[in-house]
Description:
This protein is mostly beta strands. The protein contains 1 helix and 9 strands, in the order ββββββββαβ. The strands form 2 sheets. It has a 5-stranded mixed β-sheet with strand order 1-9-8-3-6.
Amino acid sequence: xxxxxxxxxFSEVTGPIHFEKDERLRLILVNDTMMEHPIHLHGMWxxxxxxxxxxxxxxxxxxxxxxxxxxxxxxADAEGSWxxxxxxxxxxDAGMFRVVKVA
Length: 103
Ligand SMILES: [Cu+2]
């Protein structure tokens, strides 16, 4: 089997995911599998949109349950290339890995 983001494993993608430096963006993760995926973005906080307004949790890893849709706000304030991957290492090895480039 293989694991992927957007249907493409890491060996099939041609380049990084691009974030504009200092942009404020919303990342939406949809888990259409039957397993949990702890999704880890290096270098920047993911602010979990859980309805808690100013008490919004700031996370490096978001656990996404089967069938769950999670959204997070990110300020792309860290220039460079960053790993973005499932933290179950056998999922990462099977393709659930991307590079995020902030420039
Ligand atoms: Cu996973």
